[in-house]
Amino acid sequence: MKGIKNIIFDLGGVLLDIDTGKTNDAFEKLGVPDFKNNYSLYKASPLFDNLEKGNVSEPEFFNAIRQLSNLPLLDAAIRDAWNALILDFRMDSLQHLDMLKSRYSLYLLSNTNSIHHRAFHRSFNEQTGGKNFDGYFTKAYYSHQVGLRKPDKEIYDLVLSDAGIVAGETIFIDDLLKNIEAAAALGMHTHQLLPGERIEKLEW
Q1: What is the pTM of this model?
Q2: Residue 110's pLDDT is what?
Q3: Under a CB-based contact definition with an 8 Å cutoff, are residues 114 and 121 in contact?
Q4: Residue 40 to residues 20, 35, 89, 189: CA-CA distances in angstroms?
Q5: Is 10 marked active-site?
Q6: Of 3.30.530.20, 3.40.50.1950, 3.40.50.1000, 1.10.10.200, which CATH number belongs to 6-17+88-201?
């Protein structure tokens, strides 16, 4: 990639397999009605949007789910259902990051929340024997920690400024078109990773 010095990766659907249908099904089994109409990768209710911006604490989230469902659900049951979407890391893709690190500065930009953040780090440790996932990157930016969320312009501005990198020398890889379009509007090169694509198969 001529002129590219930096790569910003999304997490879910790029380096980590996820399936929101599993979380929908898990909440349905708990008796929470219409969960899939309140949360998806394409549309998030204010509750989930604020959770991913760090504006809602875990106890507040659990209480909100209990109010939504009108059921006396235990925190652990809600947590397990919420984490059901997290599957396995793409190990071949992670190994490819080690190769890319010799040629580019790597960054991570993920919409997530404290519950999922803890769960996927635990999953990574189980798959790899305790390695540090964030160690693949010069820096990892998580929405709940920075108080901003894709595709809002401000989160891309923050990454570019904090990392001290130039948009025109950077490629952003995400599986969601709306996130890709927002990055492209700021002058970044982009690639939407489609279902079935893997970063290790891209033309680097």
Answers
A1: 0.94
A2: 98
A3: no
A4: 7, 9, 20, 26
A5: yes
A6: 3.40.50.1000
Check: CB of residue 71 under 8 Å from CB of residue 105.
Answer: no
C-alpha pair distances (Å), 148 with each of 19, 106, 123, 179: 23, 20, 25, 13
Phi, psi of 138 (to 5 degrees): -60, -40
Report how far Cα 45 is from the mean position of its chain's Cα atoms: 17
The two three-digit tokens of residue 102, written as one number: 């010799």
Q: Which of 10, 19, 98, 174 is catalytic?
A: 10
Strands 139-142, 105-110: parallel, antiparallel or unpaired by DSSP? parallel
Encode pLDDT of 27-52 as tens digits.
Answer: 999 998 778 776 655 566 788 899 99
